[in-house]
Design brief:
mainly alpha; 7 helices
């Protein structure tokens, strides 16, 4: 019985501390480029909102086959250094590599942007996509990508 009361007491204390903002984990808030707390909060809130929109766009794209919005949001977040944006960008790139985007030439171009940016896992997905493309699609994509 004593252990149960201690566990309940600890749980209540932790809940109270969280509610009052007394406990924070380092990963709970993304890093901020600004020293101004108001600017930092706005940047963090914007990234959280963008990530939510990106996840919704990603889920919709898995049904519609149009990854344009998901790719745009994910790439913007990833380029800002947002960890969740990096994850979303990787998920989108994997879908592109699997040939899930309705326009394979466009998907190849997007993956080529990732290659140009030095994203280490993207060449593999671009190669996988190339295997799914017709010779005509691949020639067009390479011409547009400049390679």
């Amino acid at each position: 019985m004593k252990l149960k009361l201690t566990g309940v007491a600890v749980s209540l204390a932790l809940c109270a501390a969280f509610a009052m903002g007394g406990i924070r984990f380092a990963s709970a808030e993304p890093a901020c480029a600004s020293e101004d707390e108001a600017v930092c909060k706005a940047e963090n809130d914007e990234r959280v909102t963008m990530y939510g929109a990106g996840r919704n766009a990603y889920e919709n794209a898995r049904t519609t086959g149009n990854f344009t919005e998901a790719y745009t949001i994910a790439r913007k977040l990833a380029s800002s250094g947002d960890k969740n944006g990096d994850r979303l960008y990787k998920m989108v790139n994997m879908q592109l590599g699997w040939g899930a985007h309705k326009d394979l030439v466009q998907a190849y171009l997007w993956l080529s942007e990732g290659v140009a940016d030095g994203v280490d896992y993207v060449p593999l997905w671009r190669d996988k996509l190339a295997e799914k493309m017709t010779p005509e699609q691949l020639a067009e994509a390479k011409k547009k990508a400049g390679n």
